[in-house]
Write a structure and sequence with these properties.
The strands form 2 sheets. The protein has a 10-stranded mixed beta sheet with strand order 5-4-1-8-9-10-11-12-13-14, with helices on both faces. Strands 3-2-6-7 form a 4-stranded mixed beta sheet. Helix 2 links the parallel strand 4 and strand 5. It has one domain: UDP-N-acetylmuramoyl-L-alanine:D-glutamate ligase. 37% of the residues lie in helices and 25% in strands. It is an alpha/beta fold.
């Protein structure tokens, strides 16, 4: 089983408009709401691909109840730690040309006993898992080293970890040497404190991040694909050109597909190919939606993977 953990999930509100421009009106074409957060999104993809997944999350207030009602219809199991504070509500606005604005709440603080309950839940179920995906931001009040504890817990149980986060949580968690991390370009720039513009800079960034502790690194580059460094070598995955309708969630799909493939015993390069295919297939869908295995396989056949050096 593949576990996902989202300690700062949200209700994702998605609004589709005819155009996004400054100083002019836009007309709403559609709206939707669903449970969201990086780990929840990853579980959606794993489930759609036929994998077995369990989503762990926090839930609070009316928004939390709404989020759990949405999760109940997604087809995979979940377990929630109920907290006092209201769960987040995030807003995504996307137009027909693929221009997207995402506005996320920071999230309300958690109490120390609530943080302990999250760790206890992870410890109770991790023995059933082959992978733990630790996904998303942490709320105020959550120690930045909390993800370190979870990575160490997983390692003690022989469970591989994928870390998909940003900022201080990412920097501290690298010390625990996760199995793989999947920063996108802005997250890598914040981690390294420099802009990344060229292919040579992307390769140097992957090397520098790899030297910081993780076993493998996948630098997600959007429409330019991804560069991954692992004990098996450094590879570049190049996607086909598509019409991108909404890139939100593409990184979550990339992480999920990589772990789904690795869990099947595939090589790093093959799993990187599946990862980029899933991210690309997600970006080709309107709103925050995730592809089927068939849709991803169509893109997979067009993804080129080659040694990066």
């Amino acid at each position: 089983m593949i576990l996902t953990l989202t300690i700062n999930p949200a209700v994702d509100r998605t609004v589709t408009v005819d155009k996004l421009v400054f100083e002019d009106r836009a007309y709403i074409l559609g709206r939707a709401e669903a449970a969201g957060g990086r780990g929840i999104n990853a579980s959606q993809v794993i489930h759609a691909f036929g994998g077995k997944t369990l989503a762990l999350l926090t839930s609070g207030g009316a928004a939390g109840k709404h989020m759990e009602q949405s999760l109940a219809g997604m087809g995979f199991p979940f377990e929630a730690v109920h907290v006092k504070s209201e769960s987040r509500i995030n807003l995504t606005i996307s137009d027909k040309q693929g221009l997207t604005v995402k506005l996320n709440e920071v999230g309300a603080p958690l109490e120390p006993q609530e943080i302990g309950a999250i760790r206890d839940l992870a410890e109770a179920v991790i023995g059933k898992a082959s992978w733990l995906l630790i996904c998303g931001s942490i709320q105020p009040g959550v120690p930045p080293h909390f993800y370190c504890e979870l990575i160490e817990l997983a390692r003690a149980r022989g469970v591989k970890t994928l870390l998909d986060t940003d900022g201080e949580a990412l920097l501290h968690a690298l010390e625990a040497k996760p199995t793989v991390i999947t920063p996108n370009q802005p997250e890598a720039e914040r981690l390294l404190g420099r802009a990344l513009l060229t292919r040579a800079q992307f390769l140097e960034a992957v090397d520098r991040i790899h030297a910081m502790g993780p076993e493998s690194v996948i630098l997600s580059l959007g429409a330019r694909g991804a560069i991954g460094a692992s004990p098996e070598g450094t590879f570049e995955a190049l996607p086909p050109r598509i019409e991108s309708l909404c890139p939100i969630g593409a990184g979550d799909a990339l992480a999920a597909a990589f772990v789904w493939s690795k869990d099947k015993g595939k090589t790093f390069a093959e799993s990187l190919r599946w990862a980029v295919a899933a991210g690309t297939a997600t970006a080709a869908l309107p709103g925050i939606h995730f592809p089927t295995l068939a849709q991803t396989r169509t893109i997979y056949r067009q993804v080129e993977v080659r040694p990066a050096r």
